[in-house]
Amino acid sequence: MAVSISILAVIISLNLVAFVLAIGAESRRSTAKVVNDQYDERTYCVYDTDASTVYGLSAFGLLLISQMIVNGVTRCLCFGKGLVTGSCSATCAIILFIFSWLSFLGAEACLLAGSARNAYHTKYRGYFLKDDLSCATLRRGVFAAGAALTLLSLIGSVLYYWAHSRADTGGWEKHQNEGVGMTSASYPQQQQAGEFEKA
């Protein structure tokens, strides 16, 4: 299987857009401030924006599509024609396959957890009888970790696709019909010779 430039371009584009969205989600995290209620002496938290959740979920979706494309083209390493055993390319493809999946799952976990946590705090409204009320917000660095793992997933996916294309030469298909022609051709001749001897 040869490397397709168009597939590489799609994979790289999706991962880079997901990376930019994850960075945007980190910079647009919800912030909150304590506001005094105008009708009584209580205070409550007011959150400003929910853009971080939208960015995080968009990055999650784009990264998922990219991973599906890579594994669809390579048939997830398990359902293809087979890799040349014992070659360096096959070993690299297996290692990069595992690395690609680990970085992908880590990035997806950070993006999804960060989006859910940010949305939960953004929608939260509470009234308390405390003067020193602290408003809970998403911890800094969750989306940044997702962005870093997205870049690692990009590198792993591209290198895995390249190594898989070098190692995927059909494997057993090269020798699929070897030896079959000789056996089938000699069998009828032996059967005819046996019939002549009986006659």
TrEMBL record:
Tell me where the signal peptide lies.
1-22
Instruction: Name its cellular compartments.
Output: Endomembrane system
The residue ranges flagged as biased composition, category Polar residues, are 183-193
Q: Which domain of life is it from?
A: Eukaryota
Segments carrying the region annotation (Disordered) are: 179-199
Q: Does the keyword Endoplasmic reticulum apply?
A: no
- What UniProt keywords are attached to this protein's entry? Membrane, Signal, Transmembrane, Transmembrane helix
* Entry keyword annotation includes Transmembrane: yes
- How does the entry describe its membrane topology? Multi-pass membrane protein
User: Member of which family?
Assistant: Belongs to the DESIGUAL family.
**Protein's UniProt name:** Fiber protein Fb34
Organism annotation = Salix purpurea (Purple osier willow)
